[in-house]
Amino acid sequence: FSFCTGAMDNRSFQQGSFSSFRSSSSDEDLMDIPGTAMDFSMRDDVPPLDREVEEDKSYNGGGIGSSNRIMDFLEEPIPGVGTYDDFNTIDWVREKSRDRDRHREITNKSKESTWALIHSVSDAFSGWLLMLLIGLLSGSLAGLIDISAHWMTDLKEGICTGGFWFNHEHCCWNSEHVTFEDRDKCPEWNSWSQLIISTDEGAFAYIVNYFMYVLWALLFAFLAVSLVKVFAPYACGSGIPEIKTILSGFIIRGYLGKWTLVIKTITLVLAVSSGLSLGKEGPLVHVACCCGNILCHCFNKYRKNEAKRREVLSAAAAAGVSVAFGAPIGGVLFSLEEVSYYFPLKTLWRSFFAALVAAFTLRSINPFGNSRLVLFYVEFHTPWHLFELVPFILLGIFGGLWGALFIRTNIAWCRKRKTTQLGKYPVVEVLVVTAITAILAFPNEYTRMSTSELISELFNDCGLLDSSKLCDYENHFNTSKGGELPDRPAGRGVYSAMWQLALTLILKIVITIFTFGMKIPSGLFIPSMAVGAIAGRLLGVGMEQLAYYHHDWAIFNSWCSQGADCITPGLYAMVGAAACLGGVTRMTVSLVVIMFELTGGLEYIVPLMAAAMTSKWVADALGREGIYDAHIRLNGYPFLEAKEEFAHKTLAMDVMKPRRNDPLLTVLTQDSMTVEDIETIISETTYSGFPVVVSRESQRLVGFVLRRDLIISIENARKKQDGVVSTSIIYFTEHSPPMPPYTPPTLKLRNILDLSPFTVTDLTPMEIVVDIFRKLGLRQCLVTHNGRLLGIITKKDVLKHIAQMANQDPDSILFN
Amino acid sequence: FSFCTGAMDNRSFQQGSFSSFRSSSSDEDLMDIPGTAMDFSMRDDVPPLDREVEEDKSYNGGGIGSSNRIMDFLEEPIPGVGTYDDFNTIDWVREKSRDRDRHREITNKSKESTWALIHSVSDAFSGWLLMLLIGLLSGSLAGLIDISAHWMTDLKEGICTGGFWFNHEHCCWNSEHVTFEDRDKCPEWNSWSQLIISTDEGAFAYIVNYFMYVLWALLFAFLAVSLVKVFAPYACGSGIPEIKTILSGFIIRGYLGKWTLVIKTITLVLAVSSGLSLGKEGPLVHVACCCGNILCHCFNKYRKNEAKRREVLSAAAAAGVSVAFGAPIGGVLFSLEEVSYYFPLKTLWRSFFAALVAAFTLRSINPFGNSRLVLFYVEFHTPWHLFELVPFILLGIFGGLWGALFIRTNIAWCRKRKTTQLGKYPVVEVLVVTAITAILAFPNEYTRMSTSELISELFNDCGLLDSSKLCDYENHFNTSKGGELPDRPAGRGVYSAMWQLALTLILKIVITIFTFGMKIPSGLFIPSMAVGAIAGRLLGVGMEQLAYYHHDWAIFNSWCSQGADCITPGLYAMVGAAACLGGVTRMTVSLVVIMFELTGGLEYIVPLMAAAMTSKWVADALGREGIYDAHIRLNGYPFLEAKEEFAHKTLAMDVMKPRRNDPLLTVLTQDSMTVEDIETIISETTYSGFPVVVSRESQRLVGFVLRRDLIISIENARKKQDGVVSTSIIYFTEHSPPMPPYTPPTLKLRNILDLSPFTVTDLTPMEIVVDIFRKLGLRQCLVTHNGRLLGIITKKDVLKHIAQMANQDPDSILFN
Fold first, then answer.
1. Which residues of A touch B52 (CB under 8 A)?
2. Is residue B415 situated within a structural domain?
3. Based on the domain organization, do A160 and A206 belong to the same domain?
C-alpha cells in the first residue's frame, strides 16, 4: 500500500489510487509506437493525385460555413464530449472558446427576459462572490489551524487546569496570579511533571516532562501519517509542486477534493504540533486551493470549465499565502510569480480581493491575539547604514548556499526514498524522524519552542523590558540618548543564547532535509526562514559587539559613535530569513514584498533586496531550479516551465512523431472511412487524437478529432441514430454527397471535429514551438511541410525533448 | 506647422515630422487593394497539378536542414535585413529568436577564450547594469524636476533676497527671523509687490501680485509650448498612450529620443510651474522611458533588438512611477498592469530593482526636504469603522462618475481640437487656458498653491499645532482622552475653507478637461487626485461634524461616543483621491498599492480597495475604456488591447485578405520567378511581405518573405554578386537544380525566407486569432484551407476588424 509524498512517488502511479495513470499517460502520447523503417524522402514516391481536384469540394459550402457553425453550437451537445479523463492535459484554447460561447449565449439571451437578465448579471458577479467565499473559508480555516496548532503545541508541555482547551498563553491570561515579568508562569498552567509527580523541580521531573514531550510528538506524528495514509494520500507534502502542475493545465482528480481538504487541515495541525521541522505555509496554499476548487462546484461557470477554474485556483493560492503570512499583496505576487501559469490580468484584481478578504477574516479571528494582521510584526527604530550592506550580502551568500545545498540533498534523499525500500515504510520513517527531532529538541529551549515563535523572537529588537536571554545585555543607561537603547555589551545570557542558537542552526539544517518530502503535510517557508533568521541573528549580534568594542575602527567611526544604537540584530535576522527563503524557493519580488509586509517597514526594502538578489544569484549559479521545480521534475509531472527559455537549436521536425523510420502518421480521411475502419484504428492505437485529412495521398489537413469524443460519438450514434452500422461511412465534411439507395445511413461527425488545429511547419525552431505551447496552452500541434501533414507534436513530446536536451533520460523523467 | 498632442493630431500624420506615416502605414497593410470579382468557389476550377509531385523535391535535403540552417545563421547577414521602418509593427517572434541566437552564440564562444568568457559574463550582467543606470538617471532627473518646479512655482509669488535660487521654504529656513508659528513669513522673502511698490498691504499691492502671478504663469506656459513646438513635438502630453503603443510593438522613432528627453524635462518644469491643472507623474514615466531608450544604445544586446529593448522600457516605466510617487512596488505593478504588453516574469525583478534604485536616488536628492521617500506621507491615528465603508463607497461612486465624465468630455474636446480650426493655434490655446486658470486661481488660496501641496494639506490629519484654516476647530481640551485629538466642532476657518474648497473643486473639474491634451507635457494623476481629495475632505468634514453633533444617532452611538476621535477627514480625502484616480485610469491593484505606499499604512487597504472597486465598476458601466485607451483609440494607434476579450463570433475567413471578390493573393513561387518578375511585383504592390508557395496552382505554402528584406537582398545581389541580371531566377528552395550552361546565374534567397510562418485555418474563430496575435506578438498570419494558402491576416486587419465589430468606422479609426 503506497501513497504520495511531497513528491508523489514511483509506485503510486502504478498502484492504488494512481492505477489509471500509466494507461492514460500513454493515451496522451499520441505517437509513441516503436518504429519501422520509413524515411521522409520516401514521400516523393507518393503518386500524384486525381483526388486533388475533388478534395476541395467540401469548401463549396464555405460561404455559409459561419452560420452553419453557429447552428452546430446550438445543437444539443452529446454528453461527455468536451470533458477530460484523469491525468490528462487540458486544451486551454478549447476551454476558453467554450467559455466565450457560454458567455455570448448568456449575453444574447439577457435581452429576451428579465429572468435571463438577472441570470446574466448574477453570472457576471459570480466570480466576485466566489472570491469572497474563498477568502472567508480559507481565512477561517487558517484561523482554526493556527488556534489548534497553538493549543496542541502547548499540550506537549503541559495542560491548563482552568480549562483544558486553553493554551499556555490564554491559560495565564485568565489567571489572577500573573505579573508582567512572568507572563507565562501561572498556577493554572501545569506541566506534565506537576500533574504526574506533583513537582516541577529536579531531574526526575525533567525526565517526566522530556518523556511526555517526546510521547506527544510521536502520537501527533503517528496520527498525522496514519490519517494521510488511510484517507487522503494526496494530503501530504506542501502541495505547491502539484498545484503548479494543475494550474499549468493538468488534471489530477481528487487532489483538490473535499477529503483532501479535511484530512490536510487535520493532519497539518498534527504535523505542526508534533514539533517537526516544518511549516504550515505551503500546505495552507493547498488548503486554500481545495477551498477554491470545492466552491467552484457551486457555480456553473466554473464547475464546467477547466480553464476558468484554474483562474479561480490562482486567486485561491494568493489567498493561501495571504493567510499564511498576513500579507495580501505578497500573496498576490507569490501567486503571480511562483504558482500561476496563465494569469490574465483580470484575475490580478480578483486575487487581490480574495487575498484581502482572507487576511481580514483571519484578523477578525485573531489567532495571534495581538490584533495584527501579520505573523511577525516588528518595529525597528534605527535606520540601517550603507556599510551594513556588506554583512547583508554575506547573509545573501549564506542563504544561496543553504538553498542550493538543501535542494540537492533533499532531492537526493527523496530520490532514495522513491527508489529504495525506504519508501515502503512511511509511518516508520515519520516516527523515527519525529523521535529524533523531539529528543534533540527538548533540551534546547530554542528548538523546543515552535519555529514561528523562534523566528518571532529572533526578529525582535531588544527593548528595555525584554526579559529573554537574547536581550540579556549589560545595561549602561547613562550612555543612552533620547528614548533609544544604545548598543550595549552582551551579557552572559546572550552568550549562552548564541551557543544554543548555533546548535539549533545545525539541527534545523540537518533535520529539515529529511523532513521535507515525508508523507505528512509539510511546508518549507518557516524552516527556511528559521535557518536564515538564526544565522542572521548570530551575525547581527557579532556585528553589534564588534561595533561596541571597536567603534573606533575606520569602518565604524564615521557612523557609529559610542553610546549610539548602530546595529539592530533583529534586522539581520530578518534579512537572513529572506535570504534563505529566497535561496530555497527562488522567489524574488514576492519574497521582498512578503518580508516587507510581515514587518511593516518600507525602509528596509533595500537590505532585503540586496540579500534576496545575492541569494538568488548564488543559488542559481549552483543549480537553476527552485525546490518546487526540483520536486516537479523528480516526480515527472508534465509541467512546462514558463520562466526558463528553451535554449537549443532544434527544429519541430526533430521532435515530431512519427520519427524517421517510424510508420506513417495515423490519420482519418474526411469522407471515405467506415465506422468499422475507425473502430479498428481506435482499438489498435492508443493515441488520444487523430488528424483528419482530405485523403491519405494528399495529406491535406482538415481538422483534428479527439479519441474520447470519437468513441463517445460513435457509441451514441449506434444507440440513437437508426441504422448506423459498421459499414456506415463517417463524414467529417460539411455536406455528405447524395447516396445511392440501399446504402447504410452515413454518420456525420463534423461537430466533434476541431476545424482549427494549430499547425507549424517542420522547420519551425523548437524555441518557437515551446513558446506556442506555453503561451497558448496547447495540448498538441500538427506539423506540416509545404502544406502536407507530416506529423504531430504533443505537450509530452515537448517535455521529453526538453528533458533530453538537458541531458536527462526522457523516459525516466516523465511520469515515473 | 503642426505637432502632436497627448493626442498626436490628425495633420501631424500628414505633414512635418510624420510625413512618412501615411505611406508606411499602408505598407503595413499587406492586402489593401480594392477588389475585383473572384469568388472562393472558383478555386475548384484550378486544374490538377503535375507539379504536385515535384513540388516536394525541395524537401529532399530536409534531412540536413537543421545543420544547414545553422550555417545560414553564421553567414554574414546583409546589412539592413531584419530591421524595421518607422511606424511599423515589430515581429516579436522574430526578435526573440534573434536574441536567442545571439545569446547562444555568445555562450558557445565563451568556452573558447577568457576574453569571450568575460564578454559572456558582462553580457549577462549588462541588463542589471542598465537597470542601475536607468534608476540613477531617472531618479536624478525627477529630483531636478521637483526642485526646479518648486522654485519656479514660488517665483510666481515672489523672490528671495537672500539668494534668488532659493524657493520660499528654503529662503525662510536660512533666515534667523522666523518663528515656528509663521514658518513661511520671513524678511528675506519678498513678494513682487514688496519689491515693486515696497508694500504688501492694500488693494494695489494685491493687484500687483495678481498681475505678476498671471504674467509669470503666461511666460512659463508660452516658453513650454514654444519649446515643445519648435524642438520636440513628441514631448507633449502625458506620453503614456504612446508608450503603451510602443511597448505593444510599434516603432515611433524619436519618441523616446534624446531631444524629447531634454525638451520634455524642461517644459515639464515650466508647465507645472505655470499653475495649470496638470501633474508631472505621467510625463515622468515618459522621461524615464526616454532614459531607458537612450541608455539602451550603450549595450549591444538592447540596441539591436526591439523586443529586448521593450523589456527595458517596461522596467523604465516602473522606475518612472516609482519616482513620481516614491512608490517602487506600486510602480512595478503599474507597469505590469497598465503599461506593459509582454511582461516576462524575468523583468519583474529587474523592474523592481530599477524602481528601487530610482526611488533611492530621488530620496538622496531629497527634493521634498523631509527625508521621506513618498510624496504625501501621512499618519493617521485612528482606525476606521466598518460603517464608514458607506461614505467610502459613496466616494467610489463619485470617483467613477467623475472618471467617466472626464473621459467623455476630454475625448470630445480633443476630437474637436483635431477636427476643427482650434488645433491650428496650439500656442494661443495654451495661453488662453493658462490665463483663465491663473486669473481664477489667484484669489483662492487653495487654487493658488501647487496642486501637490493642496493634496498634501487635504490628506493631513489635523494636529494640535496645525495653524491652517482647515484645522481651525474650536478646541475643548477637557474632552480629549489620551494623546488623541477628539472630534471637535468646526470653527469659522473650517467653514470658509469648505467654501473655498468647493469652488476649487468646480474649477479643477472644469479646467482639467480642457488642459489634458494640450500641446504641453501634462499628467493626469495629480489633478484627478486633487478632485477626489477635495470631494473626500468635504465629505469627511461633513461626517465629522455630523458625528460630533449627532453622536447619539443610531449609526454613530455604537462606536462614536462624545469626545472620541471617530472620523479622520484626511482619510476620506485619501480614499476620494484613490477613487477619482481609479475612475480616470481604471487602475486596480497598482492604484491601491501606490496609495498605500504613498501613505504608509497597511491598515487602510480595505477602505481604499472598496472605493477603487466601486469606482471602477461605476466607471466601467458608463464606458469601458480608461483615459489612456481612449486616447489611443482617438489617435488610432495600432494597439491591440491585451485585457479586453474579443467577444464576437467571426472566423478568420471573414477577416483575411483577399476578401471575396478581391483579386488573388499576391504570392511568389519558390523556384520559377525571375528577378524582374519579383521587382515588378514589388513596384506594383505596397504589401510589406509576400508568401512564397511551391507553385501558384497548388498554393502550398513554403514560407514568408518581407518586402524590405527582399528589396535589400536583390539590391545587394545586383551590386555584389557577379552576373545577377533581370532574367536570373530567384530560388527560395534549399538546392537550386543544375542549370544548363549559358543561363544567367541564379539568386538564392532562402536565407531571408521565414520558413516558419504562422498559419491558421480559415475556420479558426477570430477570438483565437486575436489571442494568437496578442500572446505571440505576431505581425501577420497566413490563412489556409485544407492545406492550401488562401489569404493573410495582418495585425492591422485584426485591429480594423475589432473596430468594425465595435461599430466604429474602421478606416476613420486607424492611423487618422
1. 48-49, 52
2. yes
3. yes
Q: Supply the DSSP symbol for A178.
A: -
Domain hosting A433: range is: 387-461+487-635
- Examine the domain organization and report whether B419 and B298 are in the same domain: no
Smallest CA–CA separation between A234 and chain B, in Å? 30
Q: Are the Cβ atoms of A66 and B651 closer than 8 angstroms?
A: yes
Residues 701-760 of chain A with CB under 8 A from chain B are 701-703, 755-760
Lookup: cell for A274: 508534533
Cell matching residue A729 = 461511412
Q: Cβ contact (<8 Å) for A609 and B63?
A: no
pLDDT tens profile A119-151: 888 888 899 999 999 999 999 999 999 889 989
Q: DSSP secondary-structure letter at A746?
A: P
Question: Which of B59, B643, B786 shows the shortest C-beta gap to A694?
Answer: B786
| Same domain as B577, residue B615 | yes
Alpha carbons within 13 A on the beta-carbon side of A645: 16
Four-CA torsion B730, B732, B738, B743, nearest 10 degrees: 0
Q: Which residues pair with A788 in a beta bridge?
A: A785
Specify the DSSP class assigned to residue B603: G
- Answer yes or no: do B617 and B741 share one domain: no
Three cell numbers at A567?
546595529
> What is the DSSP secondary-structure string of A316-344?
HHHHHHHHHHT-HHHHHHHIIIII-SS--
ipTM confidence: 0.83
Rounded Cα distance, B271 and B265, in Å: 10
Which residue, chain included where needed, has cell 527625508? Answer: B371
Distances (CA, A) of A13 to A1, A3, A286, B116: 12, 9, 21, 47
Write down the pLDDT at residue A77: 60
Does A348 contact B at CB distance below 8 Å? yes
Q: Could A65 and B653 be called an inter-chain contact, meaning their C-beta atoms sit closer than 8 Å?
A: yes
Q: Which chain B residue shows the shortest CA-CA distance from A43?
A: B56
Residues of B with Cβ-Cβ distance to A773 under 8 angstroms:
none
**What single-letter DSSP state applies at residue B19?**
T
**Contact across the interface for A41 and B50, Cβ inside 8 Å:** no
A658: Cβ contacts below 8 Å, ≥ 6 apart: A31, A33, A35, A38, A664, A665, A791
Question: Is residue B402 domain-shared with residue B352, that is, in the same domain?
Answer: no
The Cα A533–Cα A531 span in angstroms is 6
Binary contact (A761, B760; C-beta < 8 A): no
pLDDT band at residue B725 under the 50/70/90 scheme:
confident
- Is A49 domain-assigned? no
Percent share of chain B, pLDDT over 70: 83
Q: Helix or strand or coil: residue A790?
A: strand
Q: Which of A635, A660, A686 is the last residue of a domain?
A: A635
**Across the strands, what pairs with B733?**
none
Statement: residue A614 has pLDDT above 60: yes
Could you tell me if A788 lies within 8 Å of chain B, comparing CB atoms? yes
Q: Which residue of A has its CA nearest to B589?
A: A349
- Would the pLDDT of A37 be above 50? no
* Cβ-based contacts of B103 with chain A (< 8 Å): 647
Q: Give the tens place of pLDDT for each residue, B245-289.
A: 999 888 888 899 999 999 999 999 999 999 999 988 889 999 999
Tell me how far the alpha carbon of residue A629 is from its chain's centroid. Answer: 9
Question: Rounded mean pLDDT of A49-70?
Answer: 38
Does the beta-carbon distance from A764 to B755 stay under 8 Å? Answer: yes
Q: Which of A60, A701, A772 sits opposite B776 (nearest CB)?
A: A772
Model confidence over A529-558: pLDDT tens digits? 999 999 999 999 999 888 888 877 877 777
Residue of B nearest to A594 (CA): B329
Cβ contacts below 8 Å, chain A against chain B, sum to 243
The rounded mean pLDDT for chain A is: 81
Each residue of B557-585: pLDDT tens digit?
777 777 677 888 889 999 999 999 999 99
Strands A189-191 and A689-693: unpaired
